[in-house]
Amino acid sequence: MQVSYFWIGLMVILLLLDLWVLNSVWRSDNSTGSKAGWTALVAVLPFAGLAIWAIAGPRGITKGPSSPEHSKG
C-alpha cells in the first residue's frame, strides 16, 4: 500500500497543531495536574484532543518577558 503525499502532509499539519496546543497548555495559568491531563489527552487522541482543546481548553499565558530588554520591538 502506497501512502500519498496528501496523508503525509495532513499528519505533519496535525503534529504541528498538537505541538502548538501543548505549548499553549503548558504556558497557561492552570495547575500542573490539569496541564498533565491535557497533555495526556492530546498525546493519546491527537485529533480528538485537538478538537476538545479548541472547545474547552485552557487559555492565557502566565508571564510575559522577564526584563525590559526582551520586550523591545
TrEMBL record:
UniProt superkingdom: Bacteria
Organism placement in taxonomy: Bacteria, Pseudomonadati, Pseudomonadota, Gammaproteobacteria, Pseudomonadales
InterPro entries given in the database record: CLS_N (IPR027379)
Keywords for the protein's UniProt record, in alphabetical order: Cell membrane, Membrane, Transmembrane, Transmembrane helix
Species this chain originates from: Pseudomonas canadensis
Domain Cardiolipin synthase N-terminal, chain residue ranges per copy: 17-58
UniProt KW Nuclease keyword: no
Membrane association type: Multi-pass membrane protein
Name this polypeptide is given: PLDc N-terminal domain-containing protein
Primary location group: membrane
Subcellular location: Cell membrane
Signal peptide: none
